[in-house]
Design brief:
Length: 484
C-alpha cells in the first residue's frame, strides 16, 4: 500500500501551520478508507493569511518586479510540479479517485497554466491616449492586491493553478481555499512557490469548511478579487459577499452541456468524444458532455455505440489504473455518488430508460456504473440539472431548429457541441448556441489559450487565455497637463 503523511498542515505566510478549527479526515474514494487528516482553518487563520498577503503586496516585493522576473518564477512553478509529478499524481488519485493516468494529465495541465501565464507576464501593456499637445495621457494595469481562490474537488490542482498562475503573473498575492474532500495534492503548490523563491505571503493555501473558512475569505474586506468554481448555490453566496465589499468575481458554476449529433456526423470519431466527454474523471467535469441530442435517423445506432463504450470501461480503484485506456475510477465521495444514483432513479420515475449502468457498484468505495439514459425529454429533471457523474442522457431531434432549442433549453450555458460534416450547419449552430464555448466536431477542443466560462447560470467572467489576465488587473489612467 502507498504510504503518505498522516497529517497535512495549512500554509500561511511561508509557514506550515495547524488549523484553528482542528482537523478533518480525508478519505480514499477508491476504497472508502481514511487516508489522512487535514488541518482545518477557521476565520482567524483566514484573517492571518489575508493580512500576510496584503503585507507582501504593499511591500512591492512582487508587484514592483520587472514582469519577466515574475514570469520566470511562475514558469518555474510548473516545472516544479512536473519534477514531482509521480508523487503528486499518486496523492491526487488517492484523495480524488481518478485513474493515475488522469491524475498525471491533471498535473501536466496545471503545469501548462504556469507555463502559459508565466509567458504572458510581460505582455500586459498599457497604452497612450492622445489628448492634444497640452496633455500626456497613459493607462497602466495594476494588480488588485489580495486575490481569493475557492477551489472545487474535481480538479483541485489544475483549478488552483489556473487562477493563481494568472494572478501571480500580474503581481497579485493569493489566498487559496482548498476543497474539504481533496485538499492534499494542492499543498504542492505551496512547495512550488517556495522552490521558485516567490516572496513569503504570495501564496497561502488553507483548507477549511466552505461555510466557515470559505465565507470568511470571500467576505474579507481586504480581499480585492475573487475566483470561484463550484455549485450555483455557493456561487450566489460568494457573489453576494463580493457585492457587499464591492469586489469583482469570476464565477464558473458548471453546466448541462449538450452535443448535437447530426445524421452526417462522423460517428466513429464521436465515440471518442463520448469516452472523454462524459466518462473522463467519472463525469465530474463542469464542461462534461452530459446530454447528447441525436438526430432521429441515427439515434438508435448512436445509442448502441455509446452503450458499447460504457460497457467497455473497467471501473475500479484509480491507483490500479495507471495507463490511458478504457477505464474509470470512483466518484469523489459516497455522498456525490449517492446523489447521482438518486438522480438516475428519479429519471426512470419520470419515464426515462436506463440502457446500461445506473447502479452503485457492490464494492467498497464511491463507484457508480458508467450510465447511459435514453427516452429523455427536455422537461425531465435529468435533462436540466447537473448530475456531475458518469451519466449521459440522450434526447432526440428532428430539425436543426429543434436541436438548438433543446440545447439552449436549460438555465446553464457553459459548453455546447455540434457534430456534422456540413460547415454551414456547424457555423449557424455555433452562432445560435447559448454557451461560452462551442466545440465543433471535437468535444473539449481548445486549450489553455482559449477563454472559458459560462452564459446564464454557468456564471460570468472568463478563465484561460489572454482574456483571463484582465481578471487580475485594474486599469489606471494617468493624465498629465503639460506646461508648453
Ligand atoms: P460547492 O460549491 O459547495 O463547493 C465548492 C467550494 O466552495 C469548496 O471549496 C467549498 O468549501 C466552498 N464553499 C462552500 N460554501 C461556501 C461559502 N458559503 N462561501 C465560500 N466558499 C464556500 O460544491 P460541492 O458541494 O463540493 O459540490 C456540489 C455540486 O457542485 C456538485 O454536485 C456539482 O454539481 C457542482 N460542482 C461543480 C464544479 C464545477 O467545476 N463547475 C465543481 C465542483 C462541484
Amino acid at each position: 500500500m502507498t504510504q503518505i503523511n498522516d497529517y497535512w498542515k495549512n500554509y500561511i505566510d511561508g509557514e506550515w501551520v495547524d488549523g484553528g478549527a482542528g482537523r478533518i479526515d480525508v478519505f480514499n474514494p477508491g476504497t472508502g478508507e481514511k487516508l489522512a487528516e487535514q488541518a482545518i482553518a477557521d476565520a482567524g487563520d483566514i484573517d492571518t493569511a489575508v493580512r500576510a498577503a496584503k503585507r507582501m503586496h504593499l511591500s512591492g516585493a512582487l508587484a514592483d518586479l520587472r514582469p519577466v522576473e515574475r514570469g520566470r518564477m511562475v514558469q518555474g512553478m510548473g516545472r516544479y510540479l512536473l519534477d514531482n509529478i509521480d508523487e503528486i499524481a499518486t496523492v491526487l488519485t488517492l484523495e480524488q479517485g481518478k485513474p493515475l493516468w488522469e491524475s498525471r494529465i491533471e498535473i501536466e495541465g496545471a503545469a501548462r497554466y504556469f507555463e502559459y501565464y508565466g509567458n504572458q507576464a510581460e505582455t500586459v501593456e498599457g497604452r497612450s491616449i492622445p489628448l492634444g499637445a497640452s496633455y500626456f495621457d497613459f493607462t497602466t494595469y495594476e494588480p488588485y492586491g489580495v486575490t481569493a481562490h475557492v477551489i472545487p474537488w474535481n480538479y483541485p490542482v489544475e483549478m488552483a493553478a489556473r487562477s493563481m498562475s494568472a494572478a501571480i503573473a500580474t503581481g497579485n498575492a493569493c489566498v487559496i481555499k482548498t476543497p474539504e474532500l481533496t485538499p492534499l495534492s494542492c499543498m504542492w503548490l505551496a512547495k512550488a512557490a517556495e522552490a521558485v523563491g516567490l516572496p513569503r505571503g504570495t501564496v497561502n493555501i488553507l483548507c477549511g469548511y466552505g461555510h466557515e473558512a470559505g465565507a470568511a475569505l470571500t467576505g474579507h474586506p481586504d480581499v480585492r478579487q475573487i475566483v470561484f468554481t463550484g455549485s450555483v448555490q455557493t456561487g450566489i453566496s460568494i457573489a453576494t459577499a463580493a457585492a457587499q465589499n464591492v469586489v469583482p468575481c469570476v464565477l464558473e458554476l458548471g453546466g448541462k452541456s449538450a452535443a448535437i449529433v447530426h445524421h452526417d456526423a462522423d460517428l466513429d470519431a464521436f465515440e471518442n468524444d463520448v469516452r472523454w466527454g462524459i466518462y473522463f474523471n467519472a463525469g465530474q467535469v463542469c464542461s462534461a458532455m452530459s446530454r447528447v441530442i441525436a438526430h432521429e435517423s441515427i439515434h438508435d445506432e448512436l445509442v448502441s455505440r455509446i452503450e458499447t463504450i460504457a460497457k467497455s470501461l473497467s471501473v475500479g480503484p484509480g491507483l490500479d489504473r495507471t495507463e490511458f485506456g478504457n477505464n474509470m475510477g470512483p466518484m469523489v465521495s459516497e455522498t456525490q455518488r449517492d446523489r447521482a444514483a438518486q438522480m438516475i432513479v428519479d429519471a426512470q420515475k419520470q419515464g426515462a430508460t436506463v440502457v446500461t449502468g445506473g447502479r452503485k457498484m457492490n464494492i467498497p468505495g464511491a463507484f457508480l456504473e458508467p450510465t447511459l439514459i435514453t427516452n429523455v425529454t427536455p422537461e425531465m429533471t435529468i435533462a436540466n440539472e447537473e448530475v456531475f457523474g458518469p451519466v449521459l442522457s440522450v434526447l432526440k431531434f428532428q430539425s436543426d431548429e429543434d436541436a438548438i432549442e433543446i440545447a439552449n433549453g436549460t438555465p446553464y450555458g457553459l459548453a455546447a457541441g455540434i457534430f456534422t460534416s456540413n460547415i454551414d450547419r456547424a457555423t449557424t449552430a455555433a452562432r445560435k448556441l447559448r454557451a461560452g464555448q462551442v466545440f465543433v466536431n471535437e468535444w473539449f477542443a481548445g486549450g489553455v489559450e482559449t477563454p472559458f466560462g459560462g452564459y446564464g447560470l454557468s456564471g460570468y467572467g472568463r478563465e484561460k487565455g489572454r482574456e483571463a489576465l484582465w481578471n487580475y488587473v485594474q486599469t489606471k489612467n494617468i493624465a498629465i497637463k503639460l506646461k508648453g
